């Protein structure tokens, strides 16, 4: 989501006549787009922002902006501890930054209902950079699921869905300027009341060759979504469905509204219906009260589903969330041990899934001269003729690694 927002912001700056700087040392405007989902991301953002002090001293004319969830949440602290930051801007107000810079504004601008502008308003006259063939399109903002560990509903607000018409209008504009791959974005895209119609609508747009969507909430995954993906070649065989834990009681305390059985049911349906589809997920280890036994259930989940890729995190308490009031009783060493063990099991599963592709031909969209992604979002490096960004190539896979594939270009 942040990558998509940053990308849009860059485009708005470019259309206002700015040029991307090679380096922050030579930039006139520096915007940090921050995330507050995990404590670690916030600490990193704070230290990066802190290090800009010398830059401001050297060239006081440089405008420095902290934007996004963390900036909004920690606005007071930023004002106090980092006076060299000129602008502090909330996640929905980020597209106003170019305007603010032009008007020489400084200070704190948290989100309010009328700061929220639709991107479609900005999309005309934007010059597409050659290598960007993927268009990122948010179909919703915020989230109202209130998983007990998650700060999103507090910093990004409750869920707000864009209408199908608006989404299609934006996708059409992106396709007509050459973006042949569309990534639909949201915290729980499949909770959108018009999700299935959006999938069908976007994948039948002229010029759109690949469509994917992230993130799917497991409690709202149903067989019909899988059927639509299976029956629509343009829809990529890629499902990112964060399960978080394989323990029933942990899921309950996380306030995730599905059971282990629900999850397995849909995962096995995907495996049956679209055998080559990648299923990827997120896990949290060391959630309050997670026993060794609970953790074992998580390992078992990986053994059963064989996720193509897993993103794993140590639990960190986030302010405002209901889990932050629970006892964070799994100590740091144990969290580290569980994370390492889970990573080992997940890598093995990923490698095994990738090995299935050895000897087969895959279609890859190049993002660099000799690498790109399959429809299932796997990274492929190839030997042989190079390609232009966005060019589709056929690669015969001859080697599988846990997080990527290697092969020879065939066409
Ligand atoms: N601690 C650790 N991981 C978290 N995530 C969200 N909140 C927390 C937290 N408090 C992880 C979840 C989510 C991913 C984006 O970040 O796994 O799916
Ligand atoms: Fe957070 Fe849960 Fe919403 Fe995901 S579904 S953004 S984890 S509250």
Would you kindly provide a written description of the structure presented here, covering whatever features stand out?
The structure is a single chain. The chain is an alpha/beta fold. It contains 14 helices and 17 strands. It has helices at residues 2-15, 39-50, 53-58, 69-73, 75-81, 97-102, 152-155, 164-176, 195-203, 223-231, 248-253, 260-273, 292-305, 332-355; strands spanning 29-34, 63-68, 87-89, 107-109, 134-138, 140-141, 160-161, 181-185, 210-214, 238-240, 278-285, 309-314, 361-368, 371-373, 379-383, 392-400, 404-409. Strand 3, helix 6 and strand 4 (107-109) form a beta-alpha-beta unit. The longest helix is centred in the last third of the chain and has 24 residues, at 332-355. The structure holds 5'-deoxyadenosine (5AD) and iron/sulfur cluster. Iron/sulfur cluster (SF4) is lined by residues 143, 145-147, 150, 152-153, 187-188, 217.
Please describe the topology of this protein.
Layout lengths: L1 H14 L13 E6 L4 H12 L2 H6 L4 E6 H5 L1 H7 L5 E3 L7 H6 L4 E3 L24 E5 L1 E2 L10 H4 L4 E2 L2 H13 L4 E5 L9 H9 L6 E5 L8 H9 L6 E3 L7 H6 L6 H14 L4 E8 L6 H14 L3 E6 L17 H24 L5 E8 L2 E3 L5 E5 L8 E9 L3 E6 L2
Parallel strand pairs: 1-2, 2-3, 3-4, 5-8, 8-9, 10-11, 11-12, 15-17
Antiparallel strand pairs: 6-7, 13-14, 13-16, 14-15, 16-17
